[in-house]
């Protein structure tokens, strides 16, 4: 098995296990077993669990950023609609049977206080969401704090949906976002 294939299998297995059980509850041996990659190869590619956690979050960060932008571009023509489309994206995500909360929020909760790398990537990911909202609200001529408020609504919906196991927080947050966007017009 070449390095790219082994790395992909490890990242996919780790991501699934981390989502199911949490980062700290998953050992490297469980990741080895789930991926089918030897322990020696695992440590060649990821010298520590922290390296693997960072790689999983980095991969997820890129995928989520692309997915939100693509969702907005495909379903919305205006900045107003693109801002609201984020909440539709969240609703679809929350309705997925495998949804267990936001990986960045969950991992930060587990490791943010002890791992500067985890804290940095989680903050960067959340800042990117805020920046996406800022691009939309700036195009509307809305006050800069509106992007912060929309990001808070989205992140709050992620937390509540993860705890409740319901997609409903996305619709509730979208309703509040609409009120804020309308007030800024």
Keywords:
single chain, 185 residues, mainly alpha, 81% helix
| SSE series | HHHHHHHHH
Number of helices: 9
Mean pLDDT over the full residue set: 95
Strand content: under 5%
Low-pLDDT windows of residues = none
Supply the helix-strand structural class.
mainly alpha
Biggest β-sheet strands, sense, barrel? none
Rg calculated over all Cα atoms: 18 Å
- Cα-to-Cα separation, first versus last residue: 56 Å
Strand tally? 0
In helices, the fraction of residues equals over 70%
**What is the molecular shape?**
elongated
Topology:
Layout: H1 3-21, H2 28-35, H3 39-45, H4 49-75, H5 79-95, H6 103-111, H7 116-140, H8 145-164, H9 168-184
Helix pairs in contact: 1-2, 1-4, 4-5, 4-7, 5-7, 5-8, 5-9, 6-7, 7-8, 8-9
Q: Any overview of this molecule?
A:
The protein is mainly α. It is built from nine helices and no strands. Helix 6 (about 105-110) packs antiparallel against helix 7. The mean pLDDT is about 95.
Question: In a nutshell, what does this entry contain?
Answer:
This protein is mainly α and 185 residues long. It is built from nine helices and no strands.
